[in-house]
Specification:
205 residues; alpha/beta; 3-stranded parallel sheet; 6 helices; 6 strands; elongated
Length: 205
Amino acid sequence: MGGQETYFATHPFFFSRRAVYLLCWSDRDASPPHAMEHYIQTVTAAAPDAPIVAVATKCDADSMVGAAGVQAQVNSLAAKYPQLHKTAIATSARDGAGVSALKAALRHAVDGVRDCKAPLPASYEKLIGAVEEAGKACVEAGEPPVMRWHDAVAMGQQKAGLQRADAALALSLLHDLGFIVLGKRSHAVAEGGSTGVSKGSTGAG
């Protein structure tokens, strides 16, 4: 997601509780000292228990000073935010340095996400298929892939054989897994091929 201030208000819309967050940072950028904490606060407000891994970018072999600066910020914030990985991973897109360490940190973080390796119930798989088909149908018709909340719940009941409460729970999980985006206001806008589901009384405007 864009790190520019213009995009700040849109970030929580795409946040999930069942995710691992990468906080990519460069000390070469002229960001104020509190800026990193702002991003962490934004994540923890929507996903209080989600792991956050800080990544020091642009750490080329001839310039590792950035890694030290990012680590210093992580050290100052780690006690306040226990979900923040204690070590900033220094990486370089130029020579690939740190990529193996970043992969290892991500695997460790993902393994700590509750039920991340548990298979989904067959009924949830059916709901995923139904949601994907509905989204494709909207796109083919030249419409945004958005549906009203009560229509999505009804789909869970009709297509997946779920009770109403279970359908609502399944939709919330699918949001957390990134299959759909749940809108908190009057409508939801889908990202990419995802389907937006509105909790409001109206559909997409």
